[in-house]
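Hello,

Our lab assistant flagged a job as stuck in the queue for most of the afternoon. It eventually completed. Since we weren't sure the result was trustworthy after the delay, we are filing this so someone can double-check. Below is the sequence as submitted and the structure that was eventually returned. Let us know if re-running is recommended.
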Amino acid sequence: MDLLTVLPSSFGYVIFTYLYSWIMLGYLAVKVGSARKKYDVKYPAMYSDKDPVFNCIQRAHQNTLEVYPQWLVFQTIAALVYPLSASVLGAIWVTSRFSYAWGYYTGDPAKRMNGAYGYIGLFGVIILSISIALQLLGVF
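-- returned structure --
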């Protein structure tokens, strides 16, 4: 069975959404690496005792990594049946992580909420995944 014949052509958008998320994760990682040099935070220390701005930069990356596995699972489930919708929702979530990080990078943790619109993307793919599960179970 050829994967290209099983997946709809619009699944290509899903793949680009995954690539976009990879770029976002790389960007956040580079920002942490740069901040380690700027604020002189040596490995293996995760946080700084002296510089709260470094901690904000680190937390933006860490929080994204904490939710990323769940997003990947629900993004993939949703994309198997609703590739275009999942791609749009995924792009919203990934873009929101940039907004979240840029707000956090100010050193004011409250500004991380600039990325709160990402819940639209996250909850969207969760709802689509629940819908698929219910369809598979014959509930509707």
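-- support follow-up --
The delay was a queue issue, not a problem with the job. The result is valid. The first helix runs from residue 3 to 6. The two ends are 29 Å apart (CA to CA).
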